[in-house]
From TrEMBL:
This is 4-diphosphocytidyl-2-C-methyl-D-erythritol kinase. Pathway: Isoprenoid biosynthesis; isopentenyl diphosphate biosynthesis via DXP pathway; isopentenyl diphosphate from 1-deoxy-D-xylulose 5-phosphate: step 3/6. PANTHER family: 4-DIPHOSPHOCYTIDYL-2-C-METHYL-D-ERYTHRITOL KINASE, CHLOROPLASTIC. It comes from Rhodanobacter hydrolyticus. The lineage of its organism: Bacteria, Pseudomonadati, Pseudomonadota, Gammaproteobacteria, Lysobacterales. The gene is ispE. The active site is at K185, D310.
Amino acid sequence: MSFRIERARLAQVDDLRGIERAAQELFRGHAAWSSYAAAPMDAQALVEAISAARVWVALDVGDQVVGFVGVAIEDGEAAIAEIDVLPNHGRRGIGAALLEHACAWAAESGYPSVVLGTLSDVPWNAPFYARHGFEAIDPKQYTPALVAHQAYDRERGFPMHLRVFMRRRLRASPDSWTRWPAPAKLNLFLRITGRRADGYHELQTVFRLLDWGDELRLRVRADDAIRRLTDVPGVPEQDDLVVRAARLLREHAGGVRGVDIEVEKRIPMGGGLGGGSSDAATVLVALNHLWGCGLDEGALAELGRQLGADVPVFVRGRSAWAEGVGERLTSLALPRRHYVVLDPHEHVPTAALFQAPELTRNAPRATISSFVSGETTENAFTPVVRERHPRVAAALDWLGRHGAARLSGSGGCVFLELRSREQAQAIADRCPAAFTAHVATGVAVSSLHEALGRHEGGSNQPETAG
Ligand SMILES: C[C@@](CO)(OP(=O)(O)O)[C@H](O)COP(=O)(O)OP(=O)(O)OC[C@H]1O[C@@H](n2ccc(N)nc2=O)[C@H](O)[C@@H]1O
Ligand SMILES: Nc1ncnc2c1ncn2[C@@H]1O[C@H](COP(=O)(O)OP(=O)(O)O)[C@@H](O)[C@H]1O
């Protein structure tokens, strides 16, 4: 193959918009031309889709972006929001490979089907998709999202007699790869109220789960081997929390159970965003389902606690007020907020910070209402981290110019809370080269639990509007 497919990066936004414009040229003279030309792809929506890791690009041997596919999630199914290939790279199987790539991702993620809207009379549209297993959807079976698309098309003067929505049903076989998200967290505040006899600290914190994080692929094996197939820099296979979580669950559940694990790391390690803990929780929850162990959430959270203080909240999958070492959780309904998360590329060792003599570890107890009123926002680690890690201090100072920047967990990532995603993106766009900025939105229910619902088949049929 003279091209390869990989996840799109934000730096490629302009390339993708250029490809869309070039691909549209093929419609000049067609009845759909004017409505396509009048409504190019929305840049903000594209940035969000790339941040959500649902856009893939095809690159030629010279690393030029020659095509892309973007997937949206609508009414519980995957939707091809956009797929384009540079016209001078047509007829080389690039579009077909991108389409199959997106469908494979959706199948592994547990989505029951993939939908798209296209033109019935254009050879590289509906007939192409039909060759790839898509069938026209009866308008009486349209989902609410398709009804909305139809209304929008009508409004923009699209030739409706040529419009067709198509669906491909997906089937996941039990021995194929499955895909599971492992979301990041923020600590919206953190207070240390005491030290226990075992050296661990009593703390109070609010965990806010995000719509952004790592992704894991799991494939059940016929033997009892537990293998991590991807390299995680600095983390040997045997020490990886994903491997330790799988072993712990197997010890508990018994039987001959094995698994291959791939980890797509995005959450910076040692960044205070709980990446390792979330990966571990995802393995516990996903393998409990795939291996058919039948443990309930409480039992899984208890296994999680043995792996790390932050694991239980990811197992439970709800933003929460936490006490104890972080395992006593009370779900908290938080307002919809968006975050700029700044990674100063500084690994902050959690254990060393908890040992710091200058750490305030006897703070008075806070109350949920003092947090909700906005009075309690401090993080006990902030002065210690500022002193010991100048890069984190610099990140706090830069982000602090835009609002009340805070440290997450023991750092080194810092964040700022905002009311709109656009505001967050605008600040992220100005991030100095020394740091990396991510934009994320807080969620009420973890994407892991949504994935579990899909894999269990609970929400496995798209809803119809009728
Ligand atoms: C500080 C927090 C806040 O959410 O997050 P991170 O910055 O790690 O993301 C957590 O409490 C970290 O949880 P986690 O990273 O799972 O910690 P663990 O692996 O259990 O422990 C790492 C080390 O931190 C210390 N530790 C951890 C939790 C706690 N309540 N008291 C402690 O004293 C212990 O010395 C332990 O050896
Ligand atoms: N799958 C994993 N992902 C990240 N870190 C891991 C993993 N398994 C083990 N670790 C170890 O856990 C440490 C803490 O990682 P992480 O949970 O990402 O950060 P934090 O606790 O600061 O939120 C890492 O430095 C690494 O040595």
